[in-house]
Amino acid sequence: MFETIEIYDERMCTIVLLDASLQKIANGAVHSEGPVYFYEDDSVIWSDSHGNRLLRWSASDGVSVLRAPSNYQSGNYRDLEGRLVACSCGDRAIIRREHDGEWQVLVDHYQGKRLNSPNDLVVKRDGTIWFTDPPYGITEPNQGYGGEQEQPGSFVYRFNPATGEIDAVVTDMVRPNGLVFSPDEHLLYVSDTAAFNIPDGPHHIRVYEVVNGRYLTNGRVFAAIEPGQPDGLRVDEHGNIFTSSQDSVQVYAPDGTRLGKIMVPEICANLTFGGPERDRLLIAAGKSLYAIDLNTHGVQQP
Ligand code: MG
After folding, report:
1. Distance (Å, rounded) from C-alpha 256 to C-alpha 53?
2. For the chain, what percent of residues have pLDDT higher than 90?
3. How far apart are CA 90 and CA 69, in angstroms?
C-alpha cells in the first residue's frame, strides 16, 4: 500500500483502498495512451499511439490489435450511443466507429483550415464533443504524418456532431492536451503539456467556467503539475481530479489541494475509470496498461 500510494491529505484515504495494489494488466505497446472502458464485455480499448495501432484488452482474451495502422489515433471516448469516438493525429480529425464497425471522419477543419492534430476529447451530456488540438501530430515524427500547421494556435473546440457546428472555446493555452468536465459540467479542466518540448512552457491544469452549456469564461490555473506534465484527466463522483504525471496519477480535490499520488513505474499518459462499478482506475503508461481498485467511482458514461 505505502509503496504504491503517497498521501498528502487525509481525504486521499477515503479515495483509495488500503489493501489495493497496482497491477500491470497488459504490455507490448510502443506508447500507451487513451484508454476507454467497455462495460459490455469488461474490456479496455487503448491507443498504441507511437506504434500506430489501436489495441484491446480483456482478462479472457488478452491483448489484440483492433486497427493497424490507426493513423496515429490518440485520445478515445464513447458517445451517448456507446460508439467509440477518437482523436486521429494522422487524419487530423475527430473520427467515430459506427455501429457497423466502419470509421467515419466527423470533423477535420475549422474556419476552412485543417485542424492541427486532435489529441484528446470528451463527450458532454448534450452529445457535443469537446477536444484539444495541439500540433504534436505535425511536429513529432512518431505521432503523425507531419504536414503544415494551418491553424494560428492550439485551441480547444466544441463540436456538435448533430449539426456540424464547431467553435473554438479556448484560445489562450499553449499546448492544451487532456480535458474533463466536473461532474455537474459547470467546470472544464484542461491540461497544458507545453513543457514537454518548450523550455519553460506550462505544465499545469487550467479550469474554466461553462456558460450556457457551451461557452467558457474565467479561465485560471488550477494546479501546476510536477514532475513532468499533466496529460490525461478524469474526475470521480466527488469532483476530485485525477491527472497523469511523470511518476504517478495525482489526485486533486476540487479546491485545488493535492491529496496524493498513485505511483506508477512507467511515465503516465492517460487514465480512465473502468470495471462494472466504475471503481477501477485504468492507466495507460509507457508500454503498458495498469489497473488499481479504488474506493470511489468515475462519472464517465456509458
Ligand atoms: Mg494527450
Report:
1. 36
2. 96
3. 10
